[in-house]
Each structure stands twice: as C-alpha cells, then as structure tokens.
Structure of LysR family transcriptional regulator:
Amino acid sequence: MHPNLLDQLRVFQAVVEGGSFAAAARALGRAVSAISYAINALEEQLAFQVFDRSTYRVSLTPEGQALLNDAEILLRRAERWEARARSLREKVEAVLPLIADPSYPEGFLVDALKKFEAQYPLVTITVRRAESEEVVRAVREEEFPLGIMLLDHGRQWDGIDGRQVAADKIALVAAPDHPLAQIEGAFPLAELENHRQIHLHSGAFDIRAFDYRVHRTDVWGVDTQSALRMMIEEGLGWGFMPEETARPAIEAGRLVHLNCDGIAQPSLRRFAAVWTTRHPPGKAGEALVASLLRDEEPVPA
Amino acid sequence: MHPNLLDQLRVFQAVVEGGSFAAAARALGRAVSAISYAINALEEQLAFQVFDRSTYRVSLTPEGQALLNDAEILLRRAERWEARARSLREKVEAVLPLIADPSYPEGFLVDALKKFEAQYPLVTITVRRAESEEVVRAVREEEFPLGIMLLDHGRQWDGIDGRQVAADKIALVAAPDHPLAQIEGAFPLAELENHRQIHLHSGAFDIRAFDYRVHRTDVWGVDTQSALRMMIEEGLGWGFMPEETARPAIEAGRLVHLNCDGIAQPSLRRFAAVWTTRHPPGKAGEALVASLLRDEEPVPA
DNA sequence: ATGAACAATCGAATTATTTGAACGAGAAAG
DNA sequence: CTTTCTCGTTCAAATAATTCGATTGTTCAT
C-alpha cells in the first residue's frame, strides 16, 4: 500500500542501464531477488509489465520504454530536492530577494548575477528597484535580506551592516543641440535650474525627498536607465548619467558633457550592499555580495 | 536507510496545509503519531528541522518554508507519473510520431492538434513531412505508427489500413502577370509544359517519381506551402495549391486561377490517415484520427 | 553436453511504518 | 484558578515493506 516509488524507479533505471536484473543488483549493491521484488512491486502498481521476461536478456516493453522518460524526469527532480536540502544544510538561501537603487547600473547587476549563477544555480534571485531611502527601510524591516544603495552621508545605520561594492563616475550630460551645450566655457550652477532635468526615480515615491541633485521643480522622471538616456538624447532635458552608460553615446555624438561650475565633473558615486546585523547574508548572499564587488576601479577614501 | 521520501513530502504538505499534525492526521486518515514519525524521519534525513515546535501551533522554520516550493514541485511530478501510468494502462500512447504528406494543409494539421491537445495533454506529438510514397513505406515498416497521405489509386494497400479524413480542392494558379494568365479563354494542357512549375516536395526524394502532375523537367521544388505560395506570387512559375490557401491571395489580386483544358478546375484531392492492420492506433491515435476528420466538406464518392 | 549467467520463488530476517495508550504542555472557558 | 480541550511526543507492540540467501529452472556460449 505504501510502496517506495522513488526507490522502485531507481531500480527500474538501473535495470535499463545495466541491461539485466543481475547487473542492476551489482550496481546497487543489493541481492538479485531484491531487484526482482522491486520491479514486480512496480509492475503491480502499474498493472502492466515494464520488462519482457520471455527473452533471455530482459527487454523493455513498449510501455516500459514510454515510462523511461518520465521516470528519469522524476528522479532528476528528486536529485534536485537532495541538492536543495544539502544547500539549506549549509545555510544557503533558497530565494534571495534583492532590492537595489535604480541608479545602480544594470550592467553591474547583470555581471554580478552571471558570476553568481555559476556558483549557485539553485538559488532564485528576485530584484526590486527602489530609491536608496526605501532600500534602507526595506532592509531594516527585513522585507529584503539584501539591498544595494547609494553610499551617502547622514543616514541612519543602526542595525544595518554593509560594505562598499562598486563606484562609478557620474557625468552631467545633455544632447549636443541642447541650449546648455551651446554655452562657451563653464556656466554657473544656477543656469542648470533654467532647464528641465530628466531624473531617474522609481515612480512610487516623492522625488524631492530622495535626491539632493534635484535642483528645481521642472523635473521629468523616468524609471529606467535606458529611458533616461533616450530622453536626454532626444534633447528633452539635461541629466546625470553613469560615465559608462554615457560613453558610447558621447562617442557617437548623441550626447555631450556639460561644463558646470558647481559640479565636479565627473563626480564619484559609490554603492554599498547592505543587510541587517541581526540577519547577515547566508552562503548565497555572501557569494552574491562577493560577485557584486568590482575591484577594477580603485576605491578612493 | 530507505525512507519513502514521496510519502514524507505528502505528509509535510498536509501538515502545512492543515496547520497542525493533528489536522494532517485527520486529512490523511492516519494516527497522529504516524505523522510525527514521518516528519521526524524527514527531518533526520535533512539534518535540520522543518517545523518549529516551540510554539503551540507548529510553524514552518525558514528552511521548511524554503523547501515547501520544491516539495510541491516534486509531488506534482509524481502526480504526473501517476497520470502517465494511468494513460498507458488505457493503451494511450506516450509519444505519437506522425508522418504526413507535405501537401496536407498545415492549417488542417494545426486545427486537429489543437483539438487533440485538449484531450491528451500528456501525449508528445512529433510530425515529419514526407511524400505519400514515403509515408506508406514508413508506416508499413512501422517507423511511424500513423501517417497522412494522398488518397490515390494504384497503390499497394496490403497490411495497411486507414480512413479518409479530409479533402480539399486544388487550384491551378499563377501570378496575374504570368504569361499563362494573359491567354484569353482556355489553353491546352501542352501549353503548361512551356512554363516552369513550382512544385511542393520534400527535398530528399526524386520528384519525378511522386507526382503525376509534374509534366516536364522544368520544375522548381520547395518544401513548404508558404514558400510555394511566395514563389508563385513572385511570378517564378505556375503551380497547384489548395483552394483555401490560395483564396486570400486571389482575393488580394496576387494570384489568379488558370484556365486549362486538360485539368478539372478546381480538382479534388483527398487525404487519408493510415496505419498497419497489425498495430492499429491506441486511444490517443484514435483520438488524433478523429480530430483530423473534417466533416465540413461533403466527401464525394 | 557443460558451465556460466540469468531471473523467479520461497521462507526467514530485517527494516520501515502504523497504531493506540500514556504523558506533559499550552490555550480557552468557566 | 481550575477544568477541559487540543496539541505533539514517546513508547512498545503490531503490521507492512523490503532484503537476503538458497533453490530451481531457463537460456546462452563454448
């Protein structure tokens, strides 16, 4: 009434691979009669034969042949279960939700996930993008075990631990035919406020609260870096953009650097991976943080 | 040493769903101690707890939570195995390879497979297209259990059984600017031979052997109906095409009917599903043949 | 013909699972 | 604060599932 299907299927597979009950018995380290018993029990459940015993060497019946595929699929799933159990035993997370500031370059993220996936193919990653303020909140309240945020001063770090993982240079850019691009020499910071900024944000929050770089109310917001680039290229406004993302467009003549007095050009922006001290990342989280680390660019003090 | 993992997972799932060991015991019709035993055995295998017993109502540990997904996947796979076994018990094929003449309209096939899939979602269909002569051979030699071929006279039917499943009208067409389309009134059959025919065939065989409609050596062959239509539309030659396939193109003015003395216009073409008398189709094969049957169009004697 | 390899079968032994009863602990009701 | 209910664990006994080794009859290769 309670046959061990998985074990029967393992026997089934071993017989098919070995070509005989005896070979399967040797391979599994059991007596031949145990193999015979298991196959008979399987066939009794199925109510039909999977092996044809009329021949000297047992051979698969058409039904057995048809079942072989499904048996292997089920066994592979069972192996996956074992692998998952082993993972959890070693404190590897099964799912790893990540919340990251939208200004963290997508390319960085993709690079990291590619490296990570090679090590932990079983771990399911989900990514949500939200402003750094929201990242801190979500991590602190343990909605997300891991976050990526801008490394700013003046934030509250109680209960939060983290490490800097990347830095990029941020460029002030506009389209070549934008009025700001026509100005000879450097222009004052105030001049920026006479033109529309295109600003990266996630639609859900009040943009004024989250970026000191927003200088005036004439701001258009978009929620992906590709949309930001497109809108600036179309001359709809000026904006800040990661050097790396902007470079191809600048080389292609679709964007230019702006020369503004008040803004160091290009200015440095640093990102940190963060988590709570109470629930530090497990093995997979550690590996992800290690993958996020970009040591190509030297990190200034 | 040989725990019944699937059973343990069923218990695990029942406890999660019921919220308590007692509820699971009631749901599964077993004693509470059996539930306790099963979960303990599972946890011993895993080497960690899946339920937190410190609370009054048992609750999932984070590890248990993580495993729930995988457990359900594995159980669903096991159910699929049961379903497949049930199918085979009722003589439903697991795979159903089909070999069909390339002139059998793709639309007919898609319609049939859509109906079939609703009844037998577990059955894997594979389709190969080959000339009717090859279909007969492959079915006779049991390389394919089921074939679809042109219903012609003069073939050898020993050991082959079958039934007519569809008929379509076949039209003689060319592009509007083709020389044949410029002729006033009907032209003789011989005139066809002065122009190139575009002919549907599967590349592997000598085309002369397989279609009595091939009238001369200036024949270009293509292996899909869409390619045939395109080439005729481009004015590369004349050809035979199913009325239904041709109609939209004729209405759009991209093709015209040709008026030829020697060819009944449009002429009727009939298709049959065939199998060997020795191995008639099983349940799934029968259902597929039934799905192939198109009774919209009256079948003439 | 003969020996080697194979699979089915049987009874005994072993292992896995179930049961019911006894127990202690938390929760809910009085 | 006690009573009562439900809960999960534990234990020993019972049952079911699986394994083993020995025996038998078969087919294959020599």
Notes: The mean pLDDT of chain B is 88. The longest strand of chain B covers residues 160-174. Residues 168-268 of chain B form a domain with the D-Maltodextrin-Binding Protein; domain 2 fold (CATH 3.40.190.290). Chain B has three domains: 5-88, 95-165+271-292, 168-268.
